[in-house]
Amino acid sequence: MINWHATAGELDDIWKPMVDVLDMGVAGAISPEVRADLDKCVFGVLQGHGHKLAMGRGTTMLTPSGLVVPQGAEYMDMLSQPDVDFGYDDDSVADALNALLTEARGRAAELSCVCLAYHVRMGEPGREAREIEIRKTTELQDKGAVTPPGTIQALAIDLEHRAGHAVAVFLPYDWDTGNGLRIGDLIAGPSHRRIWN
After folding, report:
1. Per-residue confidence (pLDDT) for residue 179, from 0 to 100
2. If you write DSSP's letter for every residue of 59-76 in order, what string do you get?
3. Phi and psi for 157 in degrees, rounded to 5?
4. What is the pLDDT of residues 52-61, one digit of tens each?
5. Contact present, 145 and 127 (Cβ < 8 Å)
6. Which residue of 35, 92, 139, 160 shows the fewest CB atoms closer than 10 Å?
7. What are the residue boundaries of the structural domains of the chain, listed by start?
8. Is the pLDDT of residue 138 over 60?
């Protein structure tokens, strides 16, 4: 069951408390330094993608993105935006994610943390297990799109830290009848190591 929240007001004021209470224990014991890197990435993704979601259903292209934390840095870098046609190519999201992952692997020696963000459809928490399906940007443009019963839309945030931790974080979202953004609590689960394995 999802605890839905309306998003009236400044979104950054909503993200910080959500990240602070997020339980990433599925990745094992996490040091404060590693947790700071993971939190930084989650907050950065929520800022960028959250503002796009708040514009309303079908009003902006919901494309994948990548953030990285260089070793010893207090800042984040964005991975390059791949040259794909999100408007017309059904495979554009998969192509973009592969390009972001390839770039991150190529920079692994200089990085502490990698984060990839993209939109998915998944089964509602608490129901039978279902596949997580990466959404195509071509279907996300439809203002009249309806989420099938028993499923939710979510922003998926795949995190990997060079210390050996891999976590998937999901932000459920939907829009009310007035096109106002509603979000659920962040959900964390184990993920796969793809950069440092």
Report:
1. 74
2. SS----EEEEEETT-SS-
3. -125, 105
4. 888 887 777 7
5. no
6. 139
7. 5-190
8. no
Name, in order, each residue with C-beta under 8 angstroms of 187's C-beta and a sequence gap of 6 or more. Answer: 125, 154, 169, 170, 171, 172
**Dist CA 103 CA 117 (whole Å):** 15
Using an 8 Å Cβ cutoff, are 153 and 119 in contact?
Answer: yes
Phi, psi (rounded to 5 degrees) for 133:
-110, 125
CA–CA dist 193, 16 (Å, integer): 26
Q: Which amino acid is residue 50, in one-letter code?
A: G
How is residue 113 written in tokens?
């943390």
Of 56-60, 163-167, 182-186, the poorest mean pLDDT is in 56-60
Q: Are 57 and 105 in contact (CB under 8 A)?
A: no
Listed range (40-49, 140-149, 173-182) with the worst mean pLDDT: 140-149
Distance CA 56, CA 30 (A): 36
Amino acid, single-letter form, for residue 85: D
pLDDT band at 27 (very low <50, low <70, confident <90, very high): low
**Torsion angles phi and psi, residue 166, rounded to 5:** -135, 120
- Strands 181-183 and 77-78 come out as unpaired
- The whole-angstrom separation of Cα 93 and Cα 114 is 18
Is 136's pLDDT higher than 80? no
| 56, two tokens | 């309303």
Cα–Cα distance for residue pair 47/50, rounded to 1 Å: 5
Structural tokens at position 192: 């796969």
Residue 142, both tokens: 């439809």
Alpha-carbon gap, residue 40 to 113, rounded angstroms: 10
